[in-house]
Amino acid sequence: MQLLTGLAARIEHMGHKLYMDSFFSSSALFDDLHTKTINFCGTIRPNRKGMPKSHEHKMKLKRGNLKNKVKGNLTVIV
């Protein structure tokens, strides 16, 4: 997380958006970037620490159906 926040230091408080894959994504990183006015979008693994608790990610959804959970400023969409 420190590596990514160090790389993002140049764009703090500018309202830029970062897009990441699930390897770097975490709820803690999202919260840290949000305090620095850096928006974040990316895939995240449902078993990561700090994610909204839900077993819906194990459910089979029909094509076109969506499920969402909100935790503070974090919105998770399945």
Compile the SSE list and pairings:
Blueprint: H1 2-7, E1 17-20, H2 27-35, E2 39-42, E3 68-71, E4 74-77
Parallel strand pairs: 1-2
Antiparallel strand pairs: 3-4
3D architecture notes:
This protein has 78 residues and is an alpha+beta fold. The protein has one domain. Helix content is 19%, strand content 21%. It contains two helices and four strands; from the N terminus they run αβαβββ. The chain has helices at 2-7, 27-35; strands at residues 17-20, 39-42, 68-71, 74-77. The strands form two sheets. The protein has a two-stranded parallel ribbon. The protein has a two-stranded antiparallel sheet with strand order 3-4. Helix 2 links the parallel strand 1 and strand 2 (39-42). The chain is elongated, with a radius of gyration of 14 Å. The model has no long low-confidence stretch (mean pLDDT 78).
